[in-house]
Design a protein that fits this description.
Blueprint lengths: L6 H9 L2 E6 L2 H5 L8 H7 L1 H5 L4 H4 L2 H6 L1 H17 L4 H10 L6 E5 L5 H4 L7 E3 L2 E8 L7 E3 L7 E2 L4 E2 L13 E5 L10 H14 L5 E6 L7 H7 L5 E4 L12 E3 L3 H15 L1 H4 L1 E3 L8 E3 L5 E2 L10 E3 L7 E10 L2 E11 L12 E6 L13
Parallel strand pairs: 1-2, 1-9, 2-3, 9-10, 10-11
Antiparallel strand pairs: 4-5, 4-8, 6-7, 12-13, 14-15, 15-16, 16-17, 17-18
Helix pairs in contact: 1-12, 8-12
C-alpha cells in the first residue's frame, strides 16, 4: 500500500537518470536529535553555554578558539565524538538504494558537517560539504593550506562544563592550535580547498547527466545556502520540509513532513509506479507468506522471536557485531528500528537460512547535523 500524495515524486524519480540530494540540519532533527538553531535546543544540549548566555554563533566562531580554546573544543569535541558513534537515519538508506537504480547514481550537497552521508555508504567522491567537515582539521592561524584528517584526535569532554579535558589538537606544521575545517560565523580563516575540490567534482558529474531530480531535505530559510543551490540546478525539485516547504515553481513538489516519513512514502510509491525497477519478490520466513521488497539486496530473514514480520532489511554484511537501522515492512508501511545484531560468518542475508545469533534492542542514536551559515 502507498499514499497517492507520494506518486508525483515517485514518477519524477522513475524517469530520472540521476539524483541530486541536498540536505540541511533538519535531517538530524528529523531523526529525533536536537537542532542548534535557537537557544532552547542549543542550551538544552550545552547547559554551561546556556548559563553563560552564549549563543550558537558565539561558540561556532574562530574567535572562540582564540579566546577560550578548551571551551570551543569542548563544544566541537563533544560533537566530533558524538558523530563518530551515531548511525545515519533511515532516509539515508532509502536514498542510497534509489540512487543505485539510476544510471548516474547520486551526488550530495549538504551543509551538515557530521559526515553521515559517508557513514551511510555514499561515495565520498560524490559529496559536497559546503560548510566543511568536523572530521577534518586546519591550523587556527592559517600557517599553511594544509587540511588533515581528525581521526587521530580523540576528545575527552566534560559535557556539563563544555570543556575539553585532554590535550588540545595542534597543527603538524607550526605546532599551534588546530580548529575544525568548518565554515563558522565571522570566519575569514576557513580553508576552502577541500570543499572547492568537491564542488569541482560535482560540476564534472553534473555535465554528464541528462535527467536529474533534486530531493532536498531539512534545509531552512534562515541561512538558505542549500535551498538556493537546490533551486538553481535547472531540474525538478522535491522539497521535504516540515515547516518551510514552499517551492519556487508550480512544477516542483512540496512535502510537509520529515525526511524519514517522506522517503518511506516515496519508496512505497516507487514500487507501485515502476515495479520492474524498484520491487522484486523475495522469500519470507515460513508461515509468513511472501514479501514484496523495494530494495532486495538488503533483505534478510531473521529467525529471532522478536521479528515476526514478513520483510526485514538487514545490513549486507556478516560475521561481526553490528549496530544498524533495521527497516520492517508492516501493513504496507516502512518502519525503522535500531538493533544490535551478531551474525554468523556463513550467513547469506538474502537467503531464507539466515541464522541470527543475537538480536538486542539498543538506544536510538544521537545526532546533530548542520553548523553555520548555509
Amino acid at each position: 500500500m502507498f499514499e497517492e500524495r507520494f506518486t508525483p515524486a515517485a514518477t519524477l524519480l522513475s524517469n530520472a537518470d540521476s539524483l541530486i540530494i541536498t540536505a540541511g540540519e533538519g535531517m538530524g532533527v528529523d531523526s529525533g536529535l536536537p537542532g542548534f538553531r535557537g537557544p532552547k535546543g542549543f542550551w538544552g544540549v550545552y547547559p554551561a553555554l546556556g548559563r553563560a548566555r552564549m549563543h550558537f554563533q558565539d561558540v561556532a566562531n574562530p574567535a572562540a578558539f582564540a579566546d577560550n580554546p578548551r571551551l570551543a573544543w569542548g563544544f566541537y569535541g563533544h560533537r566530533l565524538a558524538m558523530y563518530r558513534e551515531v548511525l545515519p537515519g533511515p532516509a539515508f538508506r532509502i536514498l542510497g538504494d534509489i540512487a543505485k537504480r539510476l544510471r548516474y547514481g547520486a551526488f550530495v550537497f549538504t551543509s551538515n558537517v557530521d559526515g553521515h552521508f559517508q557513514k551511510a555508504g555514499f561515495d565520498p567522491q560524490h559529496i559536497v560539504e559546503c560548510h566543511g567537515s568536523i572530521h577534518h582539521l586546519q591550523c587556527l592561524h592559517e600557517c599553511s593550506d594544509q587540511i588533515w584528517d581528525a581521526s587521530d584526535f580523540y576528545p575527552t569532554v566534560d559535557v556539563e562544563q563544555c570543556l575539553l579535558l585532554n590535550e588540545l589538537p595542534t597543527c603538524p606544521s607550526c605546532g599551534g592550535l588546530a580548529r575544525p575545517n568548518i565554515l563558522m560565523f565571522g570566519d575569514g580563516q576557513w580553508l576552502i580547498g577541500r570543499t572547492k575540490a568537491q564542488q569541482q567534482r560535482f560540476s564534472t558529474w553534473k555535465a554528464k547527466v541528462e535527467r536529474p531530480v533534486v530531493i532536498e531535505m531539512g534545509a531552512g530559510t534562515a541561512i538558505p545556502t542549500v535551498r538556493h543551490f537546490s533551486e538553481n540546478q535547472g531540474c525538478p525539485l522535491v522539497r521535504i520540509n516540515l515547516h518551510e516547504n514552499d517551492v519556487p515553481r508550480t512544477t516542483d513538489i512540496s512535502l510537509s513532513m520529515g525526511a524519514a516519513e517522506a522517503m518511506q512514502g516515496i519508496a512505497a510509491a516507487l514500487a507501485a509506479v515502476d515495479p520492474g525497477k524498484f520491487m522484486k519478490e523475495k522469500y519470507a520466513p515460513p508461515g509468513k507468506g511472501r514479501a514484496h521488497t523495494l530494495f532486495p539486496e538488503r533483505v534478510g530473514i531473521a529467525a529471532a522471536e522478536e521479528v515476526s514480520d514478513p520483510a526485514c532489511w538487514l545490513p549486507p554484511s556478516a560475521g561481526r557485531r553490528i549496530s544498524e537501522r533495521l527497516w520492517r515492512h508492516i501493513d504496507g508501511e516502512y518502519r525503522d528500528e535500531t538493533r544490535t545484531l551478531t551474525v554468523s560468518p556463513d550467513v547469506d542475508l538474502q537467503n531464507a537460512e539466515a541464522d541470527l545469533q543475537r538480536y538486542v534492542d539498543v538506544q536510538p542514536p544521537h545526532d546533530t547535523a548542520s553548523d553555520t551559515p548555509k
